[in-house]
Amino acid sequence: MSGFEVYNSAGKLLVDSQNRSTLFFDQRSLGAVTDKGFYRVDSPFGDGSTLGYTQQQFWNDGTLRWLKLDVNKYGLPGAELLEDNAGSMIRTTRNIGMQSGYLDVFDSAGNLIWSAASASKMPRVVGFFDVPANYDLQNNTFVLNLSFTPWILVNNCPGNLSDDGGVTGYSGIALKWTGSQL
After folding, report:
1. What's the structural domain count of the chain?
2. What burial class does residue 110 get, using C-beta atoms within 10 Å of its C-beta: 0-12 exposed, 13-18 middle, 19+ buried?
3. Which residues form the domain of 100?
4. Predicted structure pTM score
5. Between the CA of residue 69 and those of 50, 82, 94, 97, what are the distances in Å?
6. Within-domain flag for 106
7. Residue 16: what are its φ and ψ, rounded to 5°?
8. How distant, in Å, are the alpha carbons of 29, 38, 48, 82, 91 from that of 35?
9. Is residue 182 part of a domain?
10. Is residue 93 part of a domain?
11. Does a structural domain hold residue 59?
């Protein structure tokens, strides 16, 4: 069917016949990083001496990349800087086939864009980082208490690392997972 929409109890759009869902592609464990400690970016979680670049296969390749940090690991995901063996990453994409089955949803051109049979391969967004307006992130750490281990959409994590040879700067999000707090 086309022209189909499903909303959750909070009024957020979950399924829309005009937007194809992204599907699970693969999951990989993050290994050793390169250039560890080269960029010493101070944060509430460390001085950057344990951070390095993730291996190239984890860089932006056109897929959506979702990061799950292991307990007591931190990083600057928007700049691809994490600790050794920081956790896992999954990739999702719209470029793989969707399985037809119960409750197929098609776009106006007749392309299958959602199916209950493929729903288990689609990521579910269960929350957002809602930082209150005027919250002083420069001088404070914002903490989320969670009852689950989150997967963070790295593609949406800002991170600009600059180095002029004398001064290093970072503008973006720094994340640490404690096992119950992000």
Report:
1. 1
2. exposed
3. 5-129+137-177
4. 0.87
5. 15, 9, 24, 29
6. yes
7. -140, 125
8. 19, 6, 11, 11, 24
9. no
10. yes
11. yes
d(CA 50, CA 73): 10
| pLDDT tens-digit readout, 92-111 | 999 998 999 888 998 889 98
The label of the residue with tokens 């995901």 reads 77
**Residue 57: both structure tokens together:** 């296969």
Q: 152: exposed, middle or buried (C-beta count within 10 Å: 0-12, 13-18, 19+)? A: buried
pLDDT-derived band at 137 (thresholds 50, 70, 90) equals: confident
